[in-house]
Amino acid sequence: MPQVTSDSREYCVELADRLGAMPGARQESVRRLVEDGMRLCDNGHPRTGVAKLRRAIRAAQAPEPR
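Below the sequence we write its predicted structure tokens.
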């Protein structure tokens, strides 16, 4: 069944929490995306913040460069 999401501050926090458990979350580029995404969510721009957080999840799932 498809997951229904909303563009809300709570969803931003959920995505950030999910990212915290990923091995690639420690990469500098991923951390910057998370910081930017959460800042956007905190400043009333959850749709753009969620997009950044989703990009961070994709980056964290990619294999780390050696």
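The chain has three helices and no strands.
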